[in-house]
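Session log. Operator J.P. requested a structure for one protein chain; no other inputs attached. Running the standard single-chain path with token output.
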Amino acid sequence: MLNYKLSKHVTRVLYHHRTQGKAVEGVHIRGITDALRADGVQVDIISLPGADPYISPKAMSPTQQATSLMKLVSRFPEPLFELAELGYNLVSFWRVSRYLSQYKDVGFIYERYSLFMFATVLLARWKKLPIILEVNDSASVVRVRPLFFLRVAMVVERWVFKNASGLVFVSGVFRDRIKAAHGLIAPAIITPNAANIDKFSYTPEQRLAARKKWGVESDVVCGYLGAFVPWHAIDQFVYRIADHLKATPHLKLLLVGDGATYGAVEAFVKERGLEQQILLTGRVAHDDVPGLLAAMDMAILPSAGDYTSPVKLFEFMACGIAPIAPDFLPIREVLIEGETGWMFPAGELDVAVQAVLKFSQDRAALSRVGQVARAYVAKERQWRNNVSQLVEFFLELTGKRP
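Structure written below.
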């Protein structure tokens, strides 16, 4: 990939999003924004009130202001919730319009796409300003909270994806699904997620201290990082591996995060007397995550979206932790079997359990794969790599590429 400097062509970029700016969303927003700023570009963020990820970058949750707003809206019945999302277009149009009136040097708008959101694309076309959408969601995928106004969402989305200047997808399979659902779409690129090596580096002394803190100095540690929710299946993984742990006393599980299934997992661990082998941290600040990763030898991703690009996969790899992940297409696009990690047939958690048990006996393989994974992220999957691809894409869209 060629590396053009965006700052030679653009002074200012507007990053617009309607997310809460927390956890993975915040990591992604800061990753792109920081890389653009490192290139010498002024990046301004317009978000939900209180949901700027830089307001509280160490938190896994949004600010109290954003939390109160989202709690109120999330209690709406589904039809009213979706009408509120549609109504937010008026807010976005007004806020972005005011911003563009104040700053005349905006080179383009970068927006994290949200359902029912069309105001920014409409405004960009009116102002003849390029707009690139980062697409992580779609009305065409199966949702935990099914859409009431599905046809409206599809119509809006079809128009937006056709009329944006460009689209950024996290996987090829996701792009292909969008094409199948909507037909003609704007020019698109595939950009998996990333992790910055400097944020996931530690000395041997720091690793020893982390392992000592959790009482795993001489053990093999399999870690998990993420939400305890049904679709991530960490609860099901714990239930399946539990009967094998007493026969493998050298293996410890270090599980980081919380969520809907956390209480059930915690109760199960206590009931089975596995507190010494299954270590539950609960929710932690994102800045504390590298210290926990430092204690791990390998990591398990029991499940993931079959079209998504898990940020935690790249964070594991950046730390030199060998990952074991389901063989969904987006993961196969970035993971090389036996070189940067291992894969198991998606949904077959018993196979995942056997892989964890097997590799817990092979420290040399864990070390080798972890080192190769880290080198891969350092070379190809840091946020600056994503921005380099974005810059090249922007220059192609605008005819400015040398």
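Operator note: The chain has two domains: 6-194+382-398, 197-380.
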